[in-house]
Amino acid sequence: xxxxxxxxxxxxxxxxxxxxxxxxxxxxxxxxxxxxxxxxxxxxxxxxxxxxxxxxxxxxxxxxxxxx
Length: 68
Known about the structure:
By secondary structure, this protein is an all-alpha fold. Helix content is 32%, strand content 0%.
């Protein structure tokens, strides 16, 4: 049986979520669930695709993290 390979979000290399994760400031669940998972459900992805502003500390679910 073939394994399922998850595709990475095209914005991940330049997304602040990547940087925050690499700095140890963002839980791995965000990266697994959105950036390498269901990235089409990511609010950041949708806003980027539509050319809409979103702050760096906005999480993939659209909430704002004051700690980032």
